[in-house]
Amino acid sequence: TERTLVLVKPDAVERGLTGEILRRVEAKGYRLVAAELRTADDALLAAHYAEHEGKPFYAPLVDFMRSGPVLAVVAEGQRVIEGFRALAGTTDPTGAAPGTIRGDLGRDWGLAVQQNLVHGSDSPESAAREIGLWFPGL
Ligand code: ATP
């Protein structure tokens, strides 16, 4: 089986959507193998978002991600990387399909693409790298 890193971003934690998001992950049949609520520091976020460094949205994204606690979760299951991204929906909540986390719960506050509730690893390589960053002991 496969593992992925899920982040319940600060907007979702602030809005009290943590339980609803984890409910969907578990209802799909994925198993939670680690979870920690923490406020990420700059070094962790710089490593996590290294691929976006230099892009115009990078600094605001890092500011947003350290604006409050994030629930970091490792979820496990058959094809969980692809499966969680399907649960999450497309990056922009306005266009995300109903039935997805972003489609059902995401809002456009003018920062919708940034404040899109969740992150999920996009490949086995990203998952291994990101799990290593957020859960060095795993
Ligand atoms: P995630 O990796 O968080 O699941 P994603 O893979 O759909 O989302 P990426 O393209 O990897 O999106 O971008 C990472 C994050 O950066 C997005 O989830 C979003 O929070 C933010 N982001 C991406 N594009 C933009 C943009 N154009 N403006 C503002 N923020 C953005």
UniProtKB/TrEMBL annotation:
Keywords: ATP-binding, Cytoplasm, Kinase, Magnesium, Metal-binding, Nucleotide metabolism, Nucleotide-binding, Phosphoprotein, Transferase. InterPro entries: NDK-like_dom (IPR034907), NDK-like_dom_sf (IPR036850), Nucleoside_diP_kinase (IPR001564), Nucleoside_diP_kinase_AS (IPR023005). The keyword rRNA-binding does not apply. It catalyses: a ribonucleoside 5'-diphosphate + ATP = a ribonucleoside 5'-triphosphate + ADP; a 2'-deoxyribonucleoside 5'-diphosphate + ATP = a 2'-deoxyribonucleoside 5'-triphosphate + ADP. It comes from the Bacteria. Residues 1-138 form the Nucleoside diphosphate kinase-like domain. Its main location: cytoplasm. One of its GO terms (cellular component) is cytoplasm. Its cofactor is Mg(2+). The active site is at residue 119. Belongs to the NDK family. Homotetramer. HAMAP family: NDP_kinase (MF_00451). This is Nucleoside diphosphate kinase.
